[in-house]
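[Automated response] Your request has been received and processed.

Submitted sequence:
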Amino acid sequence: TSLIFCYSISQKGCADNGARNRGLKVLQINTVCGSGSVGRITVDIYHILEKNGDSPLIAYGRRGAPDGLNTWKFGGKPDMAKHVLATFFKGEHGFSSAGQTRKLIRKIEDWDPDVIHLHNIHGFVLQTELLFSYLKKAGKPVVWTLHDCWPYTGHCAFYDYTGCEGWKSGCRNCREYRRTYPYALFRNRTARNFERKKAAFTGVPCLTVVTPSRWLAGQVEQSFLGEYPVKVIPNGIDLENFSPGENDLREKLELNGKYVILGVANVWERRKGLTYFLDLAETLPEECRIVLAGLSKKQKRRLPSSVVGIERTSSVKELAEYYSMADVFVNATLEDNFPTTNLEALACGTPVITFDTGGSPESLDESCGRVVPKGDIRALRQAILEERTHPKESKACRKRAEKYDKYGRFQEYAELYHSLTARENT
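Generated structure:
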């Protein structure tokens, strides 16, 4: 168990936020609110806090937010467009949007939260140096959940795909800046960005890093963020929305009598392993049928006739029906933190097969899943055939998912907030 501690520039202990005898005011900051996996996590934490009697606020930079929440939007389309151009042409992601960031800082000062919880601060919405300069002066407890690796690299959000370890020594001579998010098409500022991030993100008086996976925690401890305490809080799953259920999808998709292999991704980029599914479609028996959900219209048009393509959906109900319909969920990701798709499949009673990469295997055990070496297509195919012959029990999958019930997982955040503010009074 990691030691959680705080220290200030002048003396140990965080500034007194006056939170002794009342609920905490907790500000979450994220790129989006309510959409995408991280956006949904912010809302889940919000509801936990509200239920506990605390006062939550979510500040976000893009898209809209669900009704009925205390939210505040600091971004705008024109500013985001400028940030996109700064990323593409100057290679400086996270260093634009100064005006929006000052606007956010004024809101923070006005609302005066007891705890500030950062999620994704990249995504074309913030000038991170300005934000962290404020955090160093404010002296408030800060929790920063890393949902990917961007905060401690010079450029990329993930690097496991290429096996790069440049982030350990300054991200010099980067060759992937054009090919990995956030895409810098014209200038390579990776090494310079690394130094700017290191200077900005270190030295915050009272900051705790949270990672959803043990894998990412180990990576963080080797980075310049290793000066901070690191706590692992796995992502949670809504066991009511994601649960086993009957539906007529097999009939609609003409899959009756087929062994259905499901793949799901929010964006089917190269690291999500689309090519592996296409290879599997050519070699698996005729009785097997692959269904891929989350495709773009262009990707769907390019699929072979033996693969069923489903476009992206924002409907949790529809997504749960696909998981419930499938015989097995295959996660062919080549780099990931702690994918919620694995949890969603398990919660619907569907066993999971995944590559041994990042934190993807951490949600599985022998009762509900199989793990194969990263990129080994033969091992992946064999695991599918073995699962077809000797299937894992649906009840075991559901039982494993219950370990990640979102109410229990995200209550850990509430406990962390209170422990950080309590330390200032001891």
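Summary generated for your ticket: The chain has 14 helices and 13 strands. The CA atoms of residues 58 and 71 lie 5 Å apart.
If you did not submit this request, please reply to this message.
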